[in-house]
Design goal:
It is a single chain. By secondary structure, the chain is α+β, with helices and mostly antiparallel strands. It has 2 domains: 272 residues, Antithrombin, Chain I, domain 2, CATH 3.30.497.10; 88 residues, Alpha-1-antitrypsin, domain 1 (Roll), CATH 2.30.39. 23% of the residues lie in helices and 32% in strands. Helix 1 packs across helix 2 and helix 1 packs across helix 8. The longest helix is centred in the N-terminal third of the chain and has 18 residues. The termini are far apart.
């Protein structure tokens, strides 16, 4: 490793300066320079990254759709954060698909993502809170990010430096090529999702050089809880056209409501200034049975419109939810031009993204919301390029063994039936 690296042995949790349980001690490689916090007001591209997050979120919803499941849950913020950390190692034209997907480029993107994560940090707390019998009086919204480097790979110095300056993070060193991968990744996933996601979705691979992990946890109580006595089974019309009975919560509430083009958007506040926006598509629309097909910009605009609405009395019925989704991100990343493209700024050899997954959990009941997600993106040595030409010797052919100096044919054969 280069002499300019700072190598320290610390608990893995030190990368995020949070978490209540110490993990096994691990080697961490730190870049040079200092973390430079960015205020949200100074992050000029923050709005563009938020808009891109809506688009990516809906793409991830579609990628995670399962006709047999009761719904899909993803974390746009976690996906964007993870991709942004990978993008720090994209050099020159390699950055183009990341720029398009994330809505910003270079230092502007780094500042925007860093500022958005810092804004969430006002609710930072112990992720294990999500397992408590009672939700906290003040919401907990925990985020964590880290990079794990295979013990046989050498990171680029510039990449290490950008991780420090933009994310105050180093690189943990582990064996990613054997079952030891799970020893390195699983405890972090479990801790930083409060146990809602028990283990990594990645597979060991001798070709892996680097893994980016991003986690987010939400534990938030409703501003006004639902009364359990008003929860009872009611009919729900499924996307498959069936009518099922499901526990439905009921309440009369003073809430912000927006009605536009057949959509109804309702804001259900948690304590403090967090809220859940519930958006009901127009009956008969493409999104009515498959909300993941909704237009991301329209949904984003409805959510923003709720900011300006005065509360009015509404009677709502909301199902109790318990959703778990495991999404293979590779088809999505391939469509975006991110998977399969060479990245030369991460480690000392060109690598490509070879695995990508997001696991997410959403639980909603009378008390509030418990949710967690972890996004993992792995990169390794680029596969050999596909041959531009294929030649099949599956009919009669000639075979020549010749001297390369003189051109003298030493053996000459006509092959007409190799099986004879």
């Amino acid at each position: 490793m280069r002499a300019s690296w700072a190598v320290v042995v610390v608990g893995v949790f030190a990368l995020t300066a949070c978490g209540s349980q110490a993990e096994p001690r691990a080697e961490v490689v730190m870049g040079e320079g200092e973390f430079v916090p960015v205020a949200l007001a100074d992050a000029s591209a923050a709005g563009d990254v938020v808009a891109a997050s809506w688009e990516l979120g809906f793409l991830a919803l579609r990628a995670g759709q399962d006709d047999e499941a009761g719904g899909v849950v993803v974390s746009p913020s976690s996906l964007v954060s993870a991709l942004a950390m990978v993008a720090e190692g994209a050099v020159g034209e390699e950055a183009a698909p990341f720029d398009a997907a994330l809505g910003a480029s270079g230092d502007d993107r780094t500042d925007a993502v860093s500022a958005l994560l810092a804004a969430l940090a006002r609710y930072e707390g112990d992720p294990a809170t999500v397992q408590d019998d009672e939700l906290p009086a003040t919401p907990v919204l925990h985020t964590a990010q880290r990079v794990v480097l295979d013990d046989g790979a050498v990171p680029r110095q510039e990449y290490l430096d950008r991780l420090v300056r933009g994310y105050d993070a180093g690189v943990t060193v582990a064996d990613l090529g054997s079952d030891a991968l799970h020893d390195a990744l699983d405890p972090w996933v479990k801790e930083h999702t409060g146990g809602l996601v028990p283990r990594s979705a990645l597979s060991p691979d001798p070709g892996l050089d680097l893994v980016v992990q991003d986690a987010v946890v939400l534990a938030a109580a409703w501003e006004e809880p639902f009364a359990e006595m008003l929860t009872y089974d009611e009919s729900f019309s499924t996307a498959a056209g069936r009518v099922v009975e499901t526990p439905m919560m009921h309440a009369d509430r003073s809430l912000a409501v927006v009605e536009h083009d057949g959509w109804t958007a309702v804001r259900l506040p948690y304590t403090d200034d967090l809220a859940a926006d519930l958006l009901l598509p127009p009956a008969g629309s493409a999104a009515a049975d498959a909300p993941a097909q909704a237009d991301a910009a329209l949904v984003a605009s409805l959510s923003v419109a709720l900011d300006e609405q005065e509360r009015r009395l509404a009677r709502i019925a909301l199902p109790v939810l318990d959703l778990t989704t495991a999404t293979d991100l590779m088809p999505l990343l391939t469509d975006l031009g991110i998977a399969g493209s060479a990245l030369s700024g991460l480690v000392d050899e060109s690598v490509v993204i070879s695995q990508g997954a997001q696991q997410a959990v959403l639980q909603v009941d009378e008390e509030g919301t418990r949710a967690a997600a972890v996004t993992e993106i792995a990169a390794g040595a680029a596969a050999p390029p596909e041959p531009q030409l294929q030649v099949r010797f599956d009919r009669p052919f000639l075979f020549v063994a010749r001297d390369g100096t003189t051109g003298w044919p030493v053996f000459l054969a006509a092959v007409t039936d190799p099986s004879a």
